[in-house]
Design brief:
This protein is an all-alpha fold and 98 residues long. 54% of the residues lie in helices and 0% in strands. This is HTH araC/xylS-type domain-containing protein.
Length: 98
């Protein structure tokens, strides 16, 4: 493992867990906007124990429910996904499985 690695992330104001959480958030919002997968299926695909844990994380990140994000992403004139559905900066979310 590169001893310089953690320092580089710190220089950018982030951490390994913060980057992993940002990737998870991006994947979840994309799945909500572009698929018809159930919340349970999205939770399973993204490492959450169940739909309830996923709903808590999305509400913490975005201040809204997964269903509301899904509806907003498929509004009038939106062929697939619209960017900017979740404007709140990511905060600490629940641990997967928790």
């Amino acid at each position: 493992m590169d001893p310089q690695g953690p320092g580089r992330l710190d220089e950018h104001g982030t951490t390994w867990s913060g980057e992993a959480e940002a990737l998870r958030r991006t994947r979840i919002t994309r799945l909500l906007r572009t698929t018809d997968l159930t919340i349970d299926a999205i939770a399973a695909r993204t490492g959450y124990a169940d739909a309830r844990a996923l709903r808590r994380a999305v509400r913490r990140w975005c201040g809204n429910t997964p269903d509301a994000l899904r509806r907003a992403g498929r509004g009038p004139g939106a062929p697939g996904a619209r960017p900017g559905l979740c404007h709140r900066p990511p905060g600490p979310g629940p641990e997967p499985g928790g």
